[in-house]
Queue: 3 jobs
Job 1
Amino acid sequence: MVSVGFLGLLVAWAVPVLVLAGEMDKTVLEGATWQLTRITLADSQVHSVPSGVEATATFANGSVSGSGGCNRYTASYTVDAGKLTIGMAASTMMACPEPQMMVEQPLMAALAATTAYRIEDGQLALLDTQGHEIATFKVQPLVALKGVTWRATVYNNGRSAAVSLIDGSEITATFGTDGVLSGSAGCNHYRAAYVIEGSSITIQAPAATRKICSDPKGVMQQESEYLKALTTTATYAIQGQQLELRTAEDALVALFQASGG
């Protein structure tokens, strides 16, 4: 987890005066999903977002929402001639392993500290009261659910909630246009029927091959937990290159990254 001292670094440091966004950029701001690429701290260190972690922001109709890297969040915002104020964010309360949480907490602090923004060369910079960049985003391309190979980064093991995959293992999911979900559960290949209605999704109990794997250690237990978790899926959401499956109680089932994303 990120310490209070770490978050406390999100204060001002001197840079030249910046040219702020105008009304044309307001349209751009609200017309895309933005993916966090780096957080700039008061000690001048730039923290890039680790590979496989997606934190996003979508501005629309006075509400900004997205993924903090682990939890879903939403907050109100007002924008006027380059000035941007973001209200206190409400979010889900899931605990995720590092590095997701190391991204999420500084991002929430940066959103709260934002007073202006700038869009330049396809990048969105959130600025504090002195015009310093505290978070930088890029435009995130849209990805469809079906026909994409999704690679799991986090899944619900039924005990400790969301956990990262065992090092050296890989779990994939491909939602076919024929209503069949297939992929690798880490050792065995699996298939399951699925039905989508709006953002709701139902996944039937998967059928899998019966190979036994011993490497990496624990992969068979991970596989069993993942396949069991799939059957609890009730909703899905795609933010750019990231797919999120959740239960009817809004608990995380799994997070996936689009292959090559």
Note: Residues 4-139 form a domain with the Lipocalin fold (CATH 2.40.128.270).
Job 2
Amino acid sequence: GKETIQNVIHAIVDLRDVAEASVLVYECSEASGRYICNAHQMRARDLVEILKRLYPHYNYPK
């Protein structure tokens, strides 16, 4: 992995929500274009800190 990360904002969404949205769009004949699924926004550093607590033995970027 990378040694450092850019502390940009990432969109976070549960895969089950994406699956449900995909089915809804597929079943709607009027649906067209792109759809964005986004439940939360989080900075990369904050996400890494959460992952460190959950999985402390992984080698994380600084």
Note: The first strand starts at residue 9 and ends at 12.
Job 3
Amino acid sequence: MKWEKIGRLYCPSKEDKYTHAMFPVVDITDGNKGLVRIYYTHRDKTNYGFPTYMDASLLDGKFSIIYNHHEPIIEKASMGNFDDSGVNVTSIVKINGKRRFYYYGWNLGVTVPFRNSIGVAEEAEDGITMKRLYNGPIMDRSRKFPNLCSTPYVIRDDNQFKVWFASGEPWIWIDGKPAVACHVGYAESENGLDWRRQNDPAVGHRSDDHVVTTPCVLKEKGVYKMWYSYRGRKYRIGYAESSNGRTFTRMDEKVGIDVSEDDWDSDMVCYPCVFDLRGVRYMIYCGNEYGKTGFGLAVLVEE
């Protein structure tokens, strides 16, 4: 597998009132015309993250922004709710022609910096904003899984909804500070709301990393292909395959994309979203400082 970087697509400027462009997720609005809508996360001056979107054209590897909304598309949660400190959309599924958004919410902590849980929202009648289906999470910490769950990626497959997500492990200490540890978990559902979680990791971490997160899954010829972020000190993009979607084999050496020598993505690459458009496979991803330098695009040139 080999990806050729097309370049950075968008980065908030110093004149913008918001920072970061994180967790880009692509929804194809008109494949024949190469029109896409990219949902992503901005941060405000208080570090609150919220989803917004841009409409863009992607034809023959040439990208142009048609409209960038910038402003929040979901109301702030009530104080004390699981997502009162931020909302990150990481997956979109069409239900009867309407977008359903799977996201994870942020809730600030005391002994650890934060807690994450998974929520769901749907597209409002205006086709722009999103409304929570519930004020509470659809997947949260539990007796079996006492740590966080976040970054859901949902597909419909074999008459089921399937989700891969970051499943928390006990927090660890790095440089005298608490640091998150997680693997990719897996769950199934008939309605996409009530989930049955499997106990074992779908993708575990290796000795040199402690975080595996932001999965993106495509099923192709009976093989589940997953791209994800992993990190020890700095994020990189990894790759894994599975015949059943429940247990994956890591093949990070085959991913075919890495940091640049000296550019907006020279320190880290993370948060991949892989999609097919007009017979071409693309990857949209974030660069340095978790998306502070924006997101860019790569095209698959070699399987």
Note: The two ends are 4 Å apart (CA to CA).
